[in-house]
Amino acid sequence: MHRGKGMKFVGDSRVPAKQAKFIPPKDYSEYPGKTEAFLPNFLLKEWMVGAVFLVGFLILTISDPSPLEKEADPTSSGYIPLPDWYFLFLYQLLKYPYASGEYKVIGTVLIPAIAALALLLAPWLDRGFERRPIKRPIATLIMLLTFVAMVYLTWESTVSHNWEQAEQQGKIVQTVDFDKSDPGYKIFSQNCAKCHGDNLEGSSLAPALVGKGLDPATVKTMATKGGGQMPSGIFKGSDKDLDALAKFVSDVSKK
């Protein structure tokens, strides 16, 4: 038998002889004006839409800039944190008794883990072919409960937050250089730094003292008798210590 002669091909009976090809039911040329070239027509439209969103985003950043706060102080125990909006529901969850304190593992690990596991198991929890929500009660109920819980916790977090105190604690204040070896600073750190800050920059508990222009007599009065939100009897020390404290705070406040 010569190569290419006398050869017969046997077909597989399981494959139909006339198998329909996977082609669109209609030719798209039947829809004039509905097609366009990718370059430059379609791509130019995409760029134009992207440019509109970019310009809008830039306008928002200029008209309403991000609220920058002062430099973070890890030693400040009175600072009230507030996460970004997409974490507010978790932030509010950690305020409840059985999700914080001794039960913080429940709020930080257990509940988020259950939510993540439910999301991963969603294709197996509801294997129906229906797309209408009313025909898929399990998936619909889970999604509605999740949505309602996130919206409620986010709303509750915003209305219960002390926005005035947060604005004061994050305000950028003036800082000055001074000699921390000054005897008056040692007395200040023992009596006043807990509320007014180590650098007299203030905190959520007390205002800043920098730039106030306080005289020594006023400092002595405030330290011994108090005033405003400051209670009396804060200062503990001798008259000599009080004079040193008053001179130090007065000198720094006038810078």
UniProtKB/TrEMBL annotation:
Residues 179-253 form the Cytochrome c domain. GO terms for cellular component: membrane. Residues 28-155 form the Cytochrome b/b6 C-terminal region profile domain. Pfam families: Cytochrom_B_C, Cytochrome_CBB3. The chain crosses the membrane at residues 42-62, 105-125, 137-155. GO terms for molecular function: electron transfer activity; heme binding; metal ion binding; oxidoreductase activity. Its main location: membrane. It is found in: Membrane. Keywords: Electron transport, Heme, Iron, Membrane, Metal-binding, Transmembrane, Transmembrane helix, Transport. It is a multi-pass membrane protein. It comes from the Bacteria. This is Menaquinol-cytochrome c reductase cytochrome b/c subunit. It comes from Pullulanibacillus camelliae.
